[in-house]
Amino acid sequence: MTLPSSGQISLGDVANEFGYTDGSQTKLGSYRTTNGQGNYPLSVGSLSYSSIDGGGAVPVGSAQIKLSDFRNTQLQTVVNFYGSGKGGTRLNAYNRYSSNSSGDVTVVGNYRSRPTNTSGTRVKIHVNQTIGSEKNSINHCALRTGNAWNAGTTLSVDVGSSGRVQGSGGDGGDGSVNNGSGQPGGSGSSGLGVEYTETAVNIVSGGIIAAGFGGGGGGAGGEQTDKPGTRYAAGGGGGGGAGIPVGVGGEKGQRTSGLSAGSSNSGPGTNASTSGGGGAGTAGDGGGGGNNANEAGGSAGGEGGQNGEAADAGGNNDGTGGAAGGDGSAIRRTSGSIVVDINDGSRVLPNAVAEGVA
Q1: What gap in Å lies between CA 347 and CA 272, rounded to an integer?
Q2: What is the pTM of this model?
Q3: What does DSSP assign to residue 16?
Q4: Which of 45, 57, 218, 252 is the most exposed place for a label (fewest CB within 10 A)?
């Protein structure tokens, strides 16, 4: 619980909040230092704590300390998505906090274990690794806050300079068979899913929260018929959409019948890249359409999507080009009643909050 902002505070109140410094007893002066964590300012990942309360209200070192210094202070905890091996795919912050495996939660000061009831506690979900999602469902988020935090928790998502939370890229659609239609590109998925109100989102320079972007549609095929017979030319594959993991380029189309069957020269789409695109990755290109003896031509696949550029549909021909995949969202929330406070929208790509989290 947060200690009161006025009135009397006892040493027992402080110990119940921040932990006992010596078994079942406590010494007020001990709170000026940590229990084995090093001197203040204390670094936890890329976060810095100037004192046990996080804001410098409680003196440190040899400075004079008194009970009134603890008014309106609260326990500070950090959930570890910043250390080596703490990234991954489709993660849930509350689950990591509650499982409390070794190294998953840091309590600033280290005089107590993390509270199972988080009411009145400041919890920072600190990301300084890469966290990705899975493909083809826009609502699927790379990192979810979780929704089981107790009312009164002060919750934030703090993304460091090496942190990246991003939805997956959609795969490119395959090119046509013969003169048929191209296949649609896959949808991208989403970055951060906010399930607790109120949640602050803090991102420092270099960090990013981004959508996964749609895959390009596969190109349509063409045909030409004359006295010797019918020729088909297949469409190219669509390019992959940017994301984590990246969208994979669609397969080139196939000629399965007609003159020159089995020797398609259409091109596959290329995979997206994790680099570029303002930090959110670069889309893959669509493959070229086939050419059958300069008489029948297929259409190119569409380029995949990336930040600021939606995926393209495959080119039309005798068949129809595959539709472009849709983009996911950088941040989603479970409903409109969930409050999300974003400190720097320039690092949220695109800067919008959608509804629906899975």
Answers
A1: 20
A2: 0.94
A3: H
A4: 57
